[in-house]
Prior knowledge:
With 299 residues, the protein is α/β, with parallel strands linked by helices. Helix content is 28%, strand content 15%. Helix 1 (35-39) links the parallel strand 1 (12-16) and strand 2. Helix 5 packs parallel to helix 6 (164-174).
Amino acid sequence: MTCDHGPVAAALRIGTCNWSDHSDFYPRGLPPRDRLTYYSNFFPMVEVDSSYYAIPSPERAAAWAAAVPHDFFFNVKAFRSMTYHERVGGEPREPTDSEEAAFLACLEPLRVAGKLRAVHYQFPSWFTATPANQSRLVRLRERHREELVVVEFRHRSWADPARFPLLLELLEEAQLSLCIVDEPQIGSGSFPTRRELTDPRLAVIRFHGRNRSSWYRSGPTSGDRFDYLYKEDELREWLEPIRQLIESADELHILFNNNRANYAVVNGLQMARILGLDYPQLPPTQPSLPIAPGGAPQR
Length: 299
């Protein structure tokens, strides 16, 4: 079974932000090595997030490409030093030449297979809108001369009314896509929803959930932070913005990062249904909502 999305599929793809976290989604006993193939039966793309924690070998990336249908695609998150998540003496550490070379090498098998759609740079909350960091953004295009590049901010300084128009101009000139986010609006470490198209070739929306109480929580898995199941009316709020983006962008990716249980899968397939896309639905053996021990849907 493969996803058959009709004529809109070339412009609109829905997926989740990794395929390994959705423990309640996979059939019991399915080997982890088969999860990506199983996932590709339901979605036409995925965002690789393991590349943030450790740079995969080219051989591993080639195995990913071989495990999915011809019309399945990947976005790949940049390694953590390349997004300045690592600091030395309170200052961001620049990636080493070997780290940069290894990351670019891991992209090559996906590119050769025609399955690399974009590289995603998600910057931390301490990556603020300084001249030095603006220069770092410009250099991304020098590093990725061929790839589509998406940038996602956490710190609100980038959205300051006096500064935001300059950011848009910078991103447009460098052909970098500003990631549109749905996330809790709390404190300086959250970026507001700004539906701006800075590279007409690609728009990306990432749904992080709206759990205010867990937004700054650290835990053993990302599900501890992104613990939120969207209601259908919350997804329907995005119908008109999505239509506008489809009309303006060559391609639109809608990615769910609410990684508790099977929340991202449920909401991704729910969004596909709302948009009238012919994505497969969950098997009848699997509940459409995660079920808590007491028997009620978790929320």
